[in-house]
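Q: How do we represent a protein-ligand complex in a form that can be generated token by token?
A: Start from the inputs.
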Amino acid sequence: MKNNRLNKISSDTNILSLDALIIGAGFSGLYQLYSLKKLGLSAKVIEAGSGVGGTWYWNRYPGARCDSESFTYSYTFSKELFEEWEWTERYPGHAEVVKYLNYVADKFSLKKDIYFDKKVISANYKENNKWIVKTDSLEEFESKYLITAVGCLSSKNIPDFNGSDSFLGESYHTGDWPHEEVDFSNKRVGQIGTGSTGIQSAPEIAEKSKHLTIFQRSANFSVPASNYPLSPEFKKHIKENYEEIKNTIHSNTNGHFFKFSEQKIFDTSEEEREKIFEKAWINGGLGFRACFNDIAFDKEANDLASDFIKRKIRKIVKDPKKAKILTDIDHAFASKRPPIDTNYFETFNKDNVTLVDLKSSPIESITPKGVKTKDREYELDILVYATGFDAMTGPLLNIDIRGRGGIKLKDVWNDGPKTFLGIQISGFPNLFTITGPGSPSVLCNMIVPIEQHVEWINDCILYMEKNEIDYVETTQGSMENWTKHVDDVANETLFIHAKKSWYYGANIPGKPRGFMPYPGGMSRYKAICNYVANQNYLGFKFSNSDKEETFVPSKISVDILIKDLMTK
Ligand code: NA7
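Then emit the structure tokens for the protein with NA7 bound:
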């Protein structure tokens, strides 16, 4: 294996020279570091936070909790790790996830290879097969491979309201929550946003504050999480069933343990249907949408599920005016990311909670005292922005990434993100983007695509090192075909009934619209990736700096490959 760049400081400069540099120390970055070290490569991670955790390091708002079940939100690459870690609840809270990642980092001695408190500001590809990476503390690194592990939901979105800076109270974005406890006692709190995050934080803030005003622009579906402490028997069961759990989540279409029912909604009587919905509601969680085979695919079936949830909301929320605002939902169930909650709708029955319908009375400005809508001003001590993220592209475009000939990623993605498999971008050799746009990532239990991506990238790097290849780069055609394929598949799904969602980039003014994650399912995606690798990396080209294109891409075009695989 070619390995002549180990940890050496270039003699003429102060640049640390590495085989691989990884940006981000969350789930992706930690596993990528572990994997590359196993290959014997020199690799380091640069992380903006002071600790490991990535998204979970920053998202520590009240109620922050994973919506994948804990036993599936675990790495499966190490049986020993899987068997020795014990989750305490059905869904892990943010502090427990951070604890888990610290445990992983310590177990595999990863922290010594992580630079904390450093933010990558630029990454430039130089023609001599080197990426030059700079941080905000002005260090420079050079590496053959650059791997972004920056997460999909890590670039916060703070809407540009008139007078945003004028508020004299405290204001926080949920995705950049302070490490010190925020004291809500006796405070009048305003929360803008009712997505997955706002739905988690509102009940907790209402509990702790004098008054909570929830500003809702779009009503949202939510299903009870039905969280509970895990029993000793269940913990034992998890440890004893590592293989089955691993195989199930890695072969399932969404990376979760639950499977979609075989039963179709219109094959059941009304009475039977109601019973099935009721059982799924009590069981709670993301599995609700799988209680019938067709909720996620057939609009009429989906309408029945939507109707069931709306009836539940009306039953829970005592004030019919509030219930009306909360059920005025403009999208199909699960066509936006479906939140799961603990007492969200019940929160609106509390005397100290006000619901403001921004549809009828939009926010006009943020004032020194609080929030002014068309109808009135709400005086606040604390303002919480639960306003989401510049998803998938934001974390990458926050870094000034320039590829071959100085071409800027920002310019390449001017009309919307384009990748091949979500993993590579033409013009950016040896750059791998874990869970980039075009990967299934955010549509799945994230750990599953993360492990798959890291392993695929590792195999590709191993292939290159064994064959003494200097660079790998996807082709423009592969990228165009894949991006079109992602869009075509999205057009066949119910996602088109929520074109205002962040999946389409619609939450960020000026962001190009296009469905970003791959909606064809994790199992199909994995089959495509494996096929690509088995065909000597079909859709990619390899070459050496001294020899032009030693490896020629296969003649089979990627669209033929996709068509072929889609019919299997
Ligand atoms: P989301 O799902 O993007 O939700 C953001 C919320 O903020 C949503 O209710 C938005 O209303 C609202 N929002 C955004 N901009 C505005 C403005 N300008 N005015 C009023 N309201 C606004 O982000 P989350 O953090 O909740 O969830 C993101 C993911 O993180 C989630 O799927 C989990 O995987 C973790 P809108 O619906 O756009 O009308």
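The pocket of NA7 is lined by residues 153, 159, 192-198, 217-218, 337, 358, 363, 386-389, 502, 507 (CB under 6 Å). The chain has 17 helices and 21 strands.
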